[in-house]
Amino acid sequence: MDFLANYDQGALLPLLVSCAALAFLFVISTRVKPGSPPSPLRLPIIGHIHHMSKRPHRALQKLAQKYGPLMLVKVGPVPFYIVSSAKLAREISKSEDTSIPARPRLKAANVLFPGHRDLIFSPYGHFWRHARKICVNELLSLKRVLSFHHIREQEVAKMAEVLRCNKPSSPVNLGSMFVKLADTIVRKAVLGEKYGGDECSKLVGELARNAADLVSGPCLGDYFPMLSWFDTLTGHTAKAKRTSQGWNKFLDQVIDEHQARPGHAVARLDDAKDFVDILLQLQKEDTVGLELTRENIKSILVDMFVGSIDTSAAIMEWIMAELAKHPTIMKKVQEEIRRVVGDKKKIDEQDFQHMEYYQCVIKESLRLHGPSTMARQTSSATTLGGFDIPGDTTVFINLWAIQRDPMLWEKPLEFKPERFLNTSHGFKGQDDKYFPFGMGKRICPGSQFALSEVEYAIANLLCWFDWKLPEGVKLEDLDMRDTFALVTRKESPLQLVPSLHKAV
Ligand code: HEM
């Protein structure tokens, strides 16, 4: 204690008082309430931000290994409850009618969808129920998805033509190719063939990307409400307003053009209709139990773009990346596809029922590289896994961690499509451990639309082309790192070299 003797006693007292105050503050701000789930050690003011990384789904998985399947994580003063087990995720889906039905209210979503008039972000209630019914029964039903087969066929044929004309041995950027494919298919289905051209592609692509980035990226005001003004400085608020105005202007024009068409008055919901036609028709019929305003219609249309482009493009890229990384699996699935297609010049959608191994490849890719997290909001105080969760609080389900849980999956990090052979794991969200499209009331209504597109596009690439890594790139060099967004995307775009399969 000699060093204390060197200090002036008068100066020491304030120092000790400050240290005691800081220690008190630390204890108060890091205290866990009784009944609350475990929580890692947190710092005053910032909470658990120091535990996070560029890839929060991975950081949260690591924390869950230490703190358990339900933990409390604070970003600044805002609490988040993180669920990392399939059992608790299922418990949430069962409680959706009562306590955990909504999605968090994000600042960006409030600007993009004022008054929560869309499906993704609207609270669980009258509007959501009716909007959901419209999406499931009218826009994204199996019948409707099948009616868009000609769009998938046209766009995949165009993609194959580009590959055919590719210079020998030169790599193709599959990442951007799949974004273009997913964007064009959804644009034609939602807005109509007229809007399938390149001039629309840039505008819609940018608006959809901005909207997806805004609702999945960080926004300071969501975590530190007192610092909302900072989002104005960073341009986040302006970007949200610009994107919202961009969508409004563009979709107003699309709707006006649809309404001005001769025959718009014909009261039929036939197969040739795009989503705008269908929604305008439902608006006129007024039979859906919901006043479908123009604003509602525009918001539902934006959802279709936000929900579909990145998700479908990302999974197509991951399937091809995993196959490039595992050449024996690539060979096996190509043999199956080519055997089923036989001498035909075209793949039929019925062929997929006979491609059992190919279905397993898609399922395994969605297990490893599906969406990162699903968000829910409690409507009132509730309990989960025996712990208390306050009302009006966000619960994140770390789907990425669940699909890699070693308690559920043997060798979870290995790409092994065989694990799905002779199993009943499906996409309906009723499985105990496999739900890449979510589960319960808010399960993805677009799964059929996405799977039809992914199945058809990838089967064509594997049937008519052989694929190898670019010159000089070794198997172990293939970058499989992911980034965090609504879905986990490949950090660096996949580049592969196609060559026409010799039997073609
Ligand atoms: C491989 C592609 C896709 C994947 C992996 C995927 C996955 C998901 C997931 C995990 C959810 C959240 C479910 C939950 O919270 O329980 C979701 C919601 C949603 N998805 Fe998809 N999705 C895909 C494609 C699509 C497509 C093509 C569309 C539309 C054309 C779409 C539209 C939506 C909508 C509107 C919601 C919100 C539903 C609601 O809150 O009621 N998705 N999706």
UniProtKB/TrEMBL annotation:
Q: Which CDD domains match?
A: CYP71-like (cd11072)
Cofactor requirement:
heme
Q: Which InterPro entries does this entry report, sorted A to Z?
A: Cyt_P450, Cyt_P450_CS, Cyt_P450_E_grp-I, Cyt_P450_sf
Residues given in the record as heme binding sites: 444
Instruction: Provide the leader sequence positions.
Output: none
Q: What is this protein called?
A: Cytochrome P450
Name residues in a coiled coil: none
Alphabetic keyword roster:
Heme, Iron, Membrane, Metal-binding, Monooxygenase, Oxidoreductase, Transmembrane, Transmembrane helix
Q: Which domain of life is it from?
A: Eukaryota
Pfam families hit by this protein: p450 (PF00067)
Query: Membrane spanning segments where?
Result: 12-32
Family named by the database record: Belongs to the cytochrome P450 family.
Q: Does the keyword Metal-binding apply?
A: yes
GO MF annotations, alphabetized = heme binding; iron ion binding; monooxygenase activity; oxidoreductase activity, acting on paired donors, with incorporation or reduction of molecular oxygen
> Organism source for this protein?
Kalanchoe fedtschenkoi (Lavender scallops)
Q: Does the keyword Oxidoreductase apply?
A: yes
